[in-house]
Specification:
The chain is α+β, with helices and mostly antiparallel strands. The protein is about 25% helix and about 40% strand. The protein folds into 4 domains: about 80 residues, no CATH class; about 200 residues, no CATH class; about 30 residues, no CATH class; about 30 residues. It is built from 7 helices and 18 strands. The protein starts with a strand and ends with a helix.
């Protein structure tokens, strides 16, 4: 399918314009002209989840190959199906294409962390890792760089009503008699306090309201990494504008609205469980049945900024991400088994030496006498 790219070029020199996290404006890297982005007054709306799910097309997504034409240089290139922002591989001009999904992002959090700042955060994180391969600690010293992505997220608001059943455990103490032996081996009877738990059947209801439960809607970064990048300050969301995309990669969602809400339910369930335990009270709690209703549920499709990288070691690829709003770093990490083996060997030698010296104190005396 043919797409024509939206390009952003400098009004002064014609060079590519890219969004600058430092200034919040479009910046020309050649003549350094800055072009402000006018903030729209459009309110960021919440959409009814039930109505949206009823209207969504249930047919499987087609694997559309995007053939993109760059207006700046006339070059043609191919994008993966759900990428809608990139840089032209020929002239480097930022290129934004049309969406192919039914639901399009209406808001985003602009990049706050520059490429240089993200590199520094990532290097500091790598340096803090024990037993990392030397090649990994030098990963960003060469041509390897972090790539800026606007990744799709769902946010969900919901009022929950949960009925539960369980048991409340209250600790009480009883006096019991035990037989103990003294240092001479003589036995005697003593009375001690021993704890017991009294379980009482309980049932009840808790109500909670959730605001902006964020769920990653991309497979570019693993769900584990995406979750560990949280929290996001969604109060910083601004209305969608293609200019924020300039110079960054951006994707549409590949995890659907319905599946996203199932992930959101799992996240909410942990908070609901905590509320149930507090409602039960006592010293211990057992939850045997939970039934939750989700009311007034709404959603937003948003884009959140992430710097990503990958590192290949021993034929395995490790992926990393930096939250471009907060600077939080997360990722998988490789281990150098040579460094681990050396550390274990060194520890064993030191331990062995200590045992040997303890067994031969005369050696220590000889050493002391010569000092």
């Amino acid at each position: 399918m043919q797409f024509t790219a939206i390009n952003f070029t400098c009004p002064s020199c014609g060079a590519p314009l890219k969004f600058s996290p430092a200034t919040g404006k479009l910046n020309c890297e050649f003549c350094h002209k800055e072009v402000p982005i006018e903030k729209a007054d459009t309110p960021i709306r919440e959409h009814n989840l039930t109505e949206a799910l009823q209207k969504l097309d249930k047919t499987p997504n087609q694997n559309i190959e995007k053939q993109v034409h760059c207006k700046k240089c006339g070059g043609a290139f191919t994008l993966t199906p759900y990428t809608f922002s990139t840089n032209c591989p020929y002239c480097g001009t930022p290129a934004v294409t049309e969406f192919v999904k039914e639901i399009t992002p209406q808001s985003l959090i602009p990049f706050k962390l520059s490429h240089k700042e993200a590199q520094m955060r990532f290097k500091a994180w790598v340096s803090s890792l024990w037993f990392a391969p030397t090649a990994f600690t030098k990963y960003l010293d060469g041509d390897n760089r972090l790539t800026g992505y606007y990744l799709p997220y769902w946010t969900y608001d919901s009022d929950t009503l949960t009925n539960y059943q369980g048991q409340r455990g209250d600790i009480y103490y009883v006096t019991v008699t035990r037989t103990v032996r003294d240092e001479q081996g003589r036995s005697r009877q003593v009375q001690v306090q021993e704890s017991r738990i009294r379980w009482t059947p309980v049932s009840g209801r808790v109500t909670l309201s959730f605001d902006d439960v964020t769920i990653g809607a991309s497979n570019t970064v693993t769900r584990t990494i995406l979750q560990s990048l949280e929290p996001w300050n969604t109060a910083a969301l601004v209305p969608f504008d293609e200019k924020y995309m300039a110079g960054f990669e951006a994707e549409e969602y590949t995890i659907g609205l319905d599946n996203g809400f199932e992930y959101a339910k799992v996240k909410m369930s942990h908070t609901i469980e905590g509320a149930i335990r507090r409602d039960i009270g006592g010293d211990q709690q057992q939850i045997t049945a939970v039934n939750t209703r989700y009311l007034n549920t709404t959603y937003k499709n948003v884009l959140l900024p992430v710097w990503v990288a990958s590192f290949t070691w021993n034929n395995k690829t490790y992926r990393y991400a930096v939250n471009a709003q907060t600077g939080k770093v997360s990722g998988e990490r490789p281990y150098s088994w040579i460094k681990i083996a050396l550390a274990v060997t060194t520890a064993a030698l030191i331990t062995g030496a200590i045992f040997y010296l303890n067994a031969h104190p005369e050696i220590i005396e000889v050493v002391k006498s010569r000092l």
